[in-house]
Design a protein that fits this description.
Layout: H1 16-30, H2 41-50, H3 56-68, H4 74-79, H5 82-88, H6 95-111, H7 115-119, H8 123-131, H9 138-148, H10 158-167, H11 176-187, H12 191-207
């Protein structure tokens, strides 16, 4: 179902069939990617902040330096000065800003009673609380909810917006929550599907649906209205 330009810009109501057709094509092209590696819930949370405005390869370097310094824990991050933490996460870029954001996130977790206490919260309550942390926007928040806390919250990123716009399902300037809720209504609450789908979209954006599209490499080109 193509996007109706007369619809309100914040309205996104894709059909389950449309979204699952894209998912199946991506899955057939890239397979199960086991997206978002992390040895613990805490590492996933830290990675969600570090990945802001950078490639995952840079996040891996920053996480590696934290591990090498035995600093990948809530207690150690809070004990470090911001300058020390910024030096360790330097490969992730914007390291001074991210050091502050990591401190803010860790203080939030500590004040909330730890990860286990957060895990007992209902999803809407947890999402509201995480969004209130300084430096945590909707995408970072939903990365944390989906991958660290296994909540059925679909992550929307720039790659998703690009794909939806090119495929004719959205205009591209809808609000974050309009797109998120559109996916969630169409797909139902399925954590494993959300994880796999998000990872496949990221991989597809890197492989084919880049800023300058490589349509000859695109598994969706046959049905994409903007194929070149």
């Amino acid at each position: 179902m193509l996007y109706d330009p007369l619809m309100r810009s914040d309205r996104f109501q894709p059909s389950s069939a449309d979204l699952m057709a894209i998912y199946q094509a991506l899955l057939g092209a890239y397979g199960d990617l086991a997206w978002w590696p992390g040895d613990s819930r805490f590492e996933i949370m830290i990675g969600a902040v570090l990945t802001q405005n950078t490639a995952w390869t840079n996040v891996e370097k920053a996480l590696g330096q934290l591990k090498a310094a035995d600093a990948l824990s809530l207690e150690r991050i809070l004990a470090l000065s911001e300058a020390e933490l910024a030096a360790l996460i330097r490969p992730s870029g914007y390291f001074n800003i991210k050091a502050d954001r990591l401190k803010q996130l860790c203080r939030f977790v500590q004040q909330a009673g730890g990860e286990a206490a957060l895990a007992r919260r209902e999803t809407t309550e947890l999402r509201t609380a995480v969004l209130a942390v300084k430096g945590v926007g909707p995408e970072t928040c939903d990365d944390i909810l989906l991958y660290a806390f296994e909540r059925p919250v679909f992550v929307i990123d720039a790659y998703t917006r690009r794909l939806l716009k090119r495929y004719g399902l959205a205009r591209g300037d809808e609000s974050y929550d309009a797109l998120r809720l559109g996916f969630e209504r169409a797909l139902g609450p399925d954590v494993d599907l959300y994880k796999a789908y998000h990872g496949l979209i990221v991989e597809h954006a890197k492989t084919a649906c880049a800023v300058k599209p490589r349509c000859r490499q695109c598994c969706l080109a046959v049905s994409c209205p903007q194929r070149l």
